Nitroreductase domain-containing protein
Amino acid sequence: MYLHRKLVKKKANIMDFSEVLKHRVSIRDYQPTQVTRTLLTSVVADAQQAPSWANSQPWKVYIATGETMKKIQKSHLEKTRAGIKGNADLPVKDIHDWGNLPWSNMSEWLDKVGSDPTMTDFTAANGRLWNAPAMAYITIPKTAPVWSIYDAGSFAQTLMLSAASHGLDTMVAYENVKYADEIREFAGVPADELIVEGIAMGYRSDDKINDFKNARLATAKMLTIL
Ligand SMILES: Cc1cc2nc3c(=O)[nH]c(=O)nc-3n(C[C@H](O)[C@H](O)[C@H](O)COP(=O)(O)O)c2cc1C
């Protein structure tokens, strides 16, 4: 009986996790509702559980909220409208040179974005940084090895899953860090830190852009078990 209860509990936890996984999708438009400092702190504390090389924990996090977020969004929209070229800290390589598998997946996604009626506002949503009420910028020292970018990625995903488990939505995007200069100016990120990624956080609006349905490659097409 006890064992049975334990198994049922385990099953329930597994199901909870799959719900968390399903909840984490890219949300491209947010309600103005602010996220509490307690919740922001809690998801970052969860993300600190991510693994890192020799427990180096190379990451730091700067979260823009309220007026700071609005200043970044205003500057971002102005730069976007003026057609100013991005100056992200990580280089952006021509997407045709990423390899056959990612290119084939990306072209399918790009075709979908171009034709899906829920995504007609895609470019505008990027430009206004999703109307998000908060944005977490993840940095590592500029002197860090490439492995620290791997660590920062684990940190970012853990943060997003923790957020999802609290019903908090997220949006990880190149767009968020496209203008590193405005992030340094308004969020006070020091010059010796590399801005790896930005994760928007908040609560999804009922805008149709959030109805966009994504897909994944069939597992059998990318998995080899020997
Ligand atoms: C590093 C990175 C950069 C991304 N940049 C953008 C972006 O600039 N604009 C955008 O709309 N989506 C961006 N995305 C979101 C992806 O398009 C999205 O994660 C992917 O299509 C899978 O969809 P899902 O997040 O809803 O599961 C980015 C995602 C990652 C991980």
About this structure: The first strand starts at residue 60 and ends at 65. The two ends are 38 Å apart (CA to CA). The chain has one domain: 26-211. The pocket of flavin mononucleotide is lined by residues 25-26, 109, 126, 172-175, 214 (CB under 6 Å).
